[in-house]
Amino acid sequence: MRFGLTKVAPSRGGLWNPMEEMVQMQDMLNNMFKERSFGEKWSETGILAPLVDVMDEGSDILVTTDLPGVEKSDVDLDVSDNLLTISAKRSASSEENEGGYLRRERTYSSFSRTITLPEAVTTEGAKAKLEDGVLTVTLPKLQIEERKKILIE
Question: What number is the average pLDDT over the span 64-72?
Fold first, then answer.
């Protein structure tokens, strides 16, 4: 009798499926990083940096991102070449006094995200607005002068 390279899982009694094993490993890793000990989440939203929408609006580039709970003074925007860096921080504190126990908690989180813009932009005439937790940045495209040909007489 000849044996091949077929692995049998004793608990299932079937053939070894490498894809199923990779899916199980991915699920274990997701569960491991989703929660720390004592059931605390890594962050309140589970997102380390917010998602960003970049749109070409003709003569402007429009960048929109959600920043819930962030104040205007805690947001920093930096434009260099065709890169936009959005940095923000958020802090919160809470206090509970129940049954003779006092509990105070403080959280602090920050992030920085750099986005490559589809075209070169200028900061002249740029606008940024943070309203209802949504940051909207309007950046005018850099107008490159067309080369003019000089005719030789």
Answer: 88
Mean pLDDT computed over 53-63 = 92
Nearest Cα neighbor of 48 from 106, 83, 90 is 90
DSSP-assigned states of every residue in 55-124: EE-SSEEEEEEE-TT--GGGEEEEEETTEEEEEEEEEEEEEEEETTEEEEEEEEEEEEEEEE-SS-B-ST
Positive/negative CA dihedral, 38, 39, 44, 50: positive
What pLDDT is attached to residue 34? 65
Using CA atoms, how far apart are residues 83 and 121, in angstroms rounded to an integer? 9
* Alpha-carbon span 143 to 123, nearest angstrom: 12
pLDDT at 9 over 70: no
Would you say how long the chain is, in residues? 153
> What is the distance between the alpha carbons of residues 59 and 136, in angstroms, rounded to a whole number?
16
CA 20, distance to chain mean position in Å, is 29
Residue 53, both tokens: 């929408």
Quick one: which of 133, 132, 135 has its CA closest to 54? Answer: 135
Q: How high is the pLDDT of residue 37?
A: 42
